[in-house]
Amino acid sequence: MTKKTAAPEISPRPFAYRNRKLLCDGADLSSLADAHGTPLYVYSAQQISHRFQLFEAAFASRPHTICYAVKANSSLAILRLLAKQGAGFDIVSGGELERVRKAHKPALKKVVFSGVGKQVWEIDAALQADILLFNVESEAELHLLAARAEALGRRARFALRVNPDVFAETHPYISTGLSEHKFGIDIKAARAIYRKAAKYKWLDPAGVSVHIGSQIRKVDPFAAALARVTALIADLRKDGHDIRYVDAGGGLGIDYGTTAFHPAQQVEKYAAALTRGLANESAHLLLEPGRFIVAQAGALLTRVLVVKKNGSKTFVITDAGMNDLIRPALYHAHHEIIPVRQPAGKSTITADIVGPVCESGDFFARDRVISAVKPGDLVLLLDAGAYGMSLTSNYNSRPRPAELLIEGAQAKLIRRRETMRDLLAPEIPG
Ligand code: LLP
């Protein structure tokens, strides 16, 4: 098979200054804020496509499908952008299935359905859509899947999501590969469950899947987990199961800080680790990357409302809050914060950058050195393309931000700002 070469490397972040103005690719962020208001999510289409193509290139020598994890950023325009390049999708709900259908119907055939608590209506919708693979996370779910497949007269291809008991260093909320976590089925119990499953006429034991967590920076745990999966596949074949798919999950991490980061090299290291883990296994490889594809392509643009001092502390209060980007509040996640107008001098302040939401946990950064800002200035929270918009809420009755997709110098509105009418629409005041 031919080795595809990746497109020339581009900067890992699409945001850069030109004549003191901060641009996203060719688009001027200050003008976009004036035209669309703030807070505003901005994404580079070029960066998203580039990241996807890095995976395509790194795995070109084996049969594979890159199933982008919809939860990372479920915007229809982004799903469509990826689907048109051949992406499949990893979904975790009936809602995400609908998103794939709406974005690019033919991609339903490349959907894998993960999640520990699938409901009957969700399973039925996925069976009717004839998705590629159900990643089953418990024996109870397997029985339910068999029953629904029989009721609808549709054979269900499934993989057990095994828990390999491999430790991957990441935040405890997003680590999943240890037996103490709720995810997956103990790998030692898997062989017996496949045996039982094979008795169901409507179930097709087509694969094995694994996912050990998210924002994993070292690639060795991926290799270790996959080596265990590969050994299991060999046993399953001995038992007569026709295993055609191996799903390695997602989880490859990015650099949220300021050290040099080379996405192409990172994906190549990851591919080498998976190849090691797979040894001679040649089943069709499924991958579920989310963050790595969209995180650095996106940022949250926000305007400073107030700069205030309380005792010795300085607070920069922005018009974006934890309802717009919850990662710092939820995981103490670090996001770089940069001014939209490049300062002439080197004047800095040490401040907490916080939102207007009525919670002390509503912060983006604490005791951070940033360039001096004043009310009305725009700042950009970097690396917010993944688990940013998809984790927004209406807390404090705040409408969700708008989203723009930048294509060269063109900005396309891909989601309008929510209105007061949107906010109140589902309610019945009695
Ligand atoms: N596949 C499965 C089964 C998953 O549970 C996840 C993420 C992925 C794929 C994609 O992982 P990624 O490539 O994006 O790391 N909200 C957290 C991250 C939660 C990840 C949940 N599962 C954050 O903001 O860091």
How would you describe what is shown here?
By secondary structure, the protein is an alpha/beta fold. It has a domain at 45-291: TIM Barrel (Alpha-Beta Barrel). Helix content is 29%, strand content 26%. The protein has helices spanning 29-36, 45-58, 76-83, 94-103, 120-128, 139-152, 187-197, 220-238, 263-278, 291-294, 327-331, 420-424, and strands at 15-18, 21-24, 27-28, 40-44, 64-69, 88-91, 111-113, 133-136, 156-163, 185-186, 203-209, 245-247, 284-287, 298-310, 313-318, 337-339, 348-354, 363-371, 378-381, 402-407, 410-415. The strands form three sheets. Strands 4, 14, 15, 16, 17, 18, 19, 20 and 21 form a nine-stranded mixed β-sheet that branches. An eight-stranded parallel beta barrel has the order 5-6-7-8-9-11-12-13, surrounded by six helices. β1 (15-18) and β2 form a beta hairpin. α2 (45-58) packs parallel to α9 (263-278) and α8 (220-238) packs parallel to α9. The longest helix has 19 residues, at 220-238. The protein starts with 14 loop residues before the first strand and ends in a 6-residue tail after the last helix. The model has no long low-confidence stretch (mean pLDDT 96). Bound molecules: ligand LLP. Ligand LLP binds at residues 69, 72, 90, 114, 174, 211, 214-215, 249-252, 288-292, 327, 331, 386-387.
